[in-house]
Design goal:
It is a single chain. With about 325 residues, this protein is an alpha/beta fold. The chain has two domains: about 1-180, NAD(P)-binding Rossmann-like Domain (Rossmann fold, 3-Layer(aba) Sandwich); about 180-325, Orthogonal Bundle (N-(1-d-carboxylethyl)-l-norvaline Dehydrogenase, domain 2). Helix content is about 50%, strand content about 10%. The protein has an eight-stranded mixed β-sheet, with helices on both faces. Strand 4 (about 75), helix 4 (about 85-90) and strand 5 (about 100) form a beta-alpha-beta unit. The chain is globular. The structure holds 1,4-dihydronicotinamide adenine dinucleotide and 1,3-dihydroxyacetonephosphate.
Length: about 325
């Protein structure tokens, strides 16, 4: 199969390697011509995955038309909030029958749309042609070929199975799921919960606090997802609990690290500067996830508090006090 991966940051680059290792002909698109040149010449991506040897068969280009020509699978891994503007340019170049796979974990600001919804809207592609990949997929671990499971979600299950087969590599094991809404929401909301866990970690709190936030974060994600039509069981799976645990526990997570900075007393701007251009999606998607929840009348206290820390001057200390002083209730 011929595949294009649009976005050569951490995940786009690692995912392109998975595709090559699964036996495909892959071209990686980089926004900056100089990065495309370095990847093509050195078979490394020093800006995002230093020390990782990329397969020499992996092509890299700054020319989106060249990357997309003849592609049967197009995977997109750019910051969620830049998807719409980029897709407008890419849409005329997309092969008409290609499967479009979102690797992104965010909800669009302003519209509160999921990434697959933005793809459908801008490209006009039928939902059956659009798939979502989600799960506990820290890019660096996958680039290091550490055994990892993932989920391919598509409303067209035959297509999900075809993608699953195409992506299977010795260290990468995809499962299928027809619940696109649940898989996408699981991925987007866990970034917000990881910010909360990071904030608590930055304040010096330990594993009880983290596990409490993870578990109640999962409850909040399930509540929102169910209200939006997702299958509640999805949140017990890789795109729910799996990704939440990986992201909230790992020092590799940009969202958790971002939260740790906030909890340690840094401002939003300071934390943003420290990411060196790498994306911490939750710091933006907390606003669109909150909007989505408010539209559907769903209580999302952790998301609401994270949004307030990021944008309304709530202090980390006041955030934790707010959680602990909520009215007592039954767990389920
Ligand atoms: N890094 C990871 O472990 C995983 C990331 N994801 C998701 O994948 C998406 C991409 O994440 P990463 O690759 O990690 O991000 P990253 O920050 O490592 O790389 C982002 C890439 O997008 C490019 N970019 C930045 N602004 C752009 C713009 N305006 N237009 C076009 N390209 C632009 C950057 O140059 C870079 O190549 C995010 O939604 C993230 O949540 C999902 C699973 C795992
Ligand atoms: O989505 C991820 C792991 O599944 C990566 O999380 P971060 O974006 O927080 O690094």
């Amino acid at each position: 199969m011929r595949a294009a991966v649009l976005g050569s940051g951490n995940w786009g680059t690692a995912f392109a390697k998975v595709l090559v290792d699964a036996g495909h002909e892959v071209t990686l698109w980089a926004r900056r011509p100089e990065l495309a040149e370095v990847i093509a010449r050195t078979h490394t991506n020093p800006d995002y995955l230093p020390g990782i040897a990329l397969p020499p068969q992996l092509s890299a280009t700054h020319d989106a038309a060249a990357a997309l020509a003849g592609a049967e699978l197009v995977a997109i891994a750019i910051p969620a909030q830049t998807l719409r503007e980029n897709l407008v340019g890419w849409a005329p170049l997309l092969p008409p029958t290609a499967t479009l796979v979102s690797l992104m974990k965010g909800v669009e600001l302003g519209t509160a749309k999921r990434m697959s919804e933005v793809i459908a809207e801008v490209t006009g592609a039928a939902p059956e042609r659009i798939a979502v990949l989600s799960g506990p997929n820290l890019a660096l671990e996958i680039a290091r070929e550490q055994p990892t499971a993932t989920v391919v979600a598509c409303t067209d299950l035959d297509r999900a199975v075809a993608i699953q087969r195409a992506l299977t590599a010795p260290y990468f094991r995809p499962y299928t799921n027809a619940d696109v809404v649940g898989c996408e929401l699981g991925g987007a909301v866990k970034n917000v919960i990881a910010l909360a866990v990071g904030i608590a970690h930055g304040m010096g709190y330990g594993d009880n606090t983290a596990a409490s936030l993870i578990t109640r974060g999962l409850a909040e994600t399930s509540r929102l997802g169910t209200a939006l039509g997702a299958d509640p069981l999805t949140f017990a799976g890789l795109a729910g609990l799996g990704d939440l645990v990986a992201t909230c526990s790992s020092p590799l997570s940009r969202n958790r690290a971002f939260g740790t900075r906030l909890g340690g007393g840094e401002s939003l701007q300071q934390a943003q500067e420290a990411t060196h251009g790498q994306v911490a999606e939750g710091a933006k998607s907390c606003r669109s996830v909150l909007e989505l929840a408010q539209r559907h009348g769903v209580d999302v206290p952790i998301t609401q508090a994270v949004e307030a820390v990021c944008f309304r001057g709530l202090t980390p200390q006041a955030m934790l006090e707010r959680f602990m002083s909520r009215s007592v209730k039954s767990e389920v």
